[in-house]
Amino acid sequence: MKLLDSCFLDPETGKELRFVTNTDHLGAKTIADLYKESWQIELFFKWIKQNLRVKTFLGTSKNVVLTQIWIALCVSPAGLPEVQDQNRPFHATDAPAVAAQYL
Description:
Elements: E1 4-9, E2 16-21, H1 28-51, H2 62-75, H3 81-84, H4 95-102
Antiparallel strand pairs: 1-2
């Protein structure tokens, strides 16, 4: 397998980002953007595991994962920062709006 060293200078921070990839048809900025997006996904699942007490997922299909997240959101209102900041108790009708922010 051929590996390529891809460098990208982040205009916001001025830092040079280096990625090792086997994808030779994408530019350095695209690779950096993909990495940034994948990191946001990692942070989202870390938040789920820490706040919704979901330690493992019961399957890998989109439907299974979304259903398990939905159930965890419905039964774990204490883990939702948006709800904790409000001066009223969590209500089941809050779940769709809160879930939409994360899914």
